[in-house]
Amino acid sequence: MSKPSSNSQPMELDWRELCRAAGPYPREAFDFVREGLAHTVETMNPDGPEVPGGGRHVSGQQLCMGLREYAILKYGMLAPTVMEHWHVARTDDFGRIVFAMIDAGLMSRTPQDSIDDFRSVYDFAEAFGHQQVASRLRNTTGTRQAV
């Protein structure tokens, strides 16, 4: 997945329709995924292959892992609560959001990208469990940046 090039024309977007088409997710979840994609590309694949129109590509699995890290960096111990509030309970939910954004022209994909790439990448209860989040936060102390 990658963001469309920044020199593409701005488009009118009906956020209500986009949110309704993707599922029960609020706009904040879409904003989070867009920001999380930038974070993931920056941290996981800064030298990855360029895609047509500019930008760097990450796989669905890489994006899921990056979104987990970004959620913990951004929301700390509240990350699981925020995800729950947004009705994001599985990595499949990230896939639905991503593919709705692709359909709306907010992200791009390669022919190899599939919504199946987001299926069961990790278990949310484990990935966002108290001990896991606390451990991730301890590991980023000192290098943690304001997000």
What does this structure look like?
- This protein is an all-alpha fold and 147 residues long.
- The chain has one domain.
- Helix content is 52%, strand content 0%.
- The protein is built from seven helices and no strands.
- The chain has helices at 15-22, 27-44, 60-75, 79-85, 91-103, 124-127, 130-140.
- It is globular and about 40 Å long.
Structure keywords:
mainly alpha; globular; disordered C terminus
Short description:
This protein has one domain (15-140).
Q: Work out the number of β strands.
A: 0
Number of helices: 7
End-to-end separation: 21 Å
Average pLDDT across residues?
84
Percentage of residues in DSSP E strands: under 5%
Number of structural units classed as domains: 1
Outline? globular
Largest sheet: none
> From N to C, what is the helix and strand string?
HHHHHHH
Point out poorly predicted stretches.
5-10, 143-147
Percent range for helical residues? Answer: 40-55%
Over all CA atoms, what is the radius of gyration? 15 Å
List the helices and strands and how they pair.
Layout: H1 15-22, H2 27-44, H3 60-75, H4 79-85, H5 91-103, H6 124-127, H7 130-140
